[in-house]
Automatic annotation (TrEMBL):
It comes from Actinomadura graeca. This is SIMPL domain-containing protein. Coiled coil: none annotated. InterPro entries: 26kDa_periplasmic_antigen, SIMPL/DUF541. Pfam families: SIMPL (PF04402).
């Protein structure tokens, strides 16, 4: 076994940054007595929703359909085959990168008939440079801590034995925010565009930690 002194430390970095994207979940529904009518109405409302989102151009980073369903609704005192209506639902996932239009988009989506909006969910992109910056700061902290220990013992660092990534995570410092609109505008109401809701981005907390071992010169313990 080597007699070379080893110093083991943990370096950690915590960054608070602004979010880069906001995610919305939009649920579009239809309900009709006939299955085909429910599907046709769902297709119509789904297209209306997609056209609205696409009208914001590059402000919308990603637009996806998460799922579609047509479900029979049975009567309370049901007999086999006793269907009172058919309900259709589509799930649309929207990723917005321009927060200047987010409030307006949310209220316009919520104003659509039989449309529910959940969000925004604030986040960083998967490839955000913030994660790399946090990892670098954690490594620098490990080096500084090891050097401080060595100096306290009258020694100095001579090499790196191991550096391991303990974890890299991000959390929403403001907690989840949920907005919902169930049925949108009432038929016959004024066609004016609804006033945009004021949404404040929630800070993201990014944490990184590393564990490192360094070799050092013999300490001056006397």
């Amino acid at each position: 076994m080597s007699d070379t002194p080893l110093i083991s430390v943990r370096g950690e970095a915590v960054l608070e940054v602004e979010p880069e994207i906001a995610r919305l979940s939009v649920y579009v529904q239809s309900q009709e007595n006939d299955r085909r009518a429910a599907l046709d109405r769902l297709v119509e409302r789904n297209q209306q929703c997609l056209d609205l989102v696409r009208s914001y151009g590059d402000a919308v980073e990603k637009l996806e359909t998460g799922g579609l369903s047509i479900t029979p609704l049975l009567r309370h005192r049901r007999r086999e085959g006793d269907v009172r209506a058919y309900q259709g639902t589509t799930w649309i996932k929207v990723t917005v990168s321009d927060f200047a239009v987010l409030g307006e988009l949310v209220t316009r989506l919520g104003d659509l008939e039989r449309t529910a909006v959940n969000g925004p969910e604030w986040a960083l992109r998967r490839d955000s440079e913030v994660y790399a910056r946090a990892a670098r700061q954690a490594a620098h902290e490990a080096v500084a801590r090891a050097r401080s220990y060595a100096e306290a013992l009258g020694a100095r660092l001579t090499g790196l034995v191991e550096l391991a990534d303990e974890g890299l995570t991000s959390t929403d410092a403001g907690g989840p925010v949920t907005l919902a609109a169930a049925y949108g505008a009432v038929p016959g109401s004024a066609p004016d565009q609804p006033e945009a809701i004021d949404l404040q981005p929630a800070s993201q907390i990014v944490r990184a930690a590393v564990e490192a071992r360094f070799t050092a010169t013999a300490p001056a313990l006397d």
